[in-house]
Amino acid sequence: MRSEDLTAVHEIERRSFTTPWPAHAYRTELSTNRLAHYRVVKVDGQVVAYAGLWLMVDEAHITTFAVDPAHRRRGVGERLLLAMLDIAIERGAREATLEVRLSNTPARNLYEKFGFRPVGIRPNYYSDDNEDALIMTTEPLDDRRMRSRLTELRASIAVADLAAVGDEPGDEPGAEAER
């Protein structure tokens, strides 16, 4: 994610969350937070998704994750989550964690597919409606089962990309997570 991506990121944020991060938050994250790593996904040059994580000692904490509503259910989130886990592994994280609304079943299903499991609740976590957050954590990222899961997911994404070649314009075979 770069400063020139922030207008598009804020628009996706606004369409995805009832309480978006303040406009200055991402700029501050990009310019001053040495623990932060942010990525965007672009399709045809347009930002369609973004995510961020903080690397704290040996833990990668996914701080934000959103796919533009017009690009959901097309594999963009899978590609982006895989990219974020790759960053965590490359930087030596032992595990990855995140919080998700209890009511956000599609996001929870995506995270579970990638090996996140519920480990706790943060009561009244979300300020807009006091909904609880589900805390989810992966198995150790260097565990054989986790590595195998990620290898299988990477292969299924590659197969989906090949199958999508020649499909309708706007499909995501060329979508990539960018720095």
Mind explaining what this structure looks like?
The protein has a single domain (3-178), classed as Aminopeptidase (3-Layer(aba) Sandwich). The protein is globular, with a radius of gyration of 16 Å. The protein is 37% helix and 28% strand. With 179 residues, the protein is of the alpha+beta class. The chain has a 7-stranded mixed sheet.
Short descriptors:
28% strand, 7-stranded mixed sheet, 179 residues, globular, alpha+beta, Aminopeptidase, 5 helices, single chain
SSE inventory with pairings:
Layout: H1 6-16, H2 23-32, E1 36-43, E2 46-56, E3 59-67, H3 76-90, E4 95-101, H4 105-113, E5 116-122, E6 133-138, H5 144-164, E7 176-178
Parallel strand pairs: 3-4
Antiparallel strand pairs: 1-2, 1-7, 2-3, 4-6, 5-6
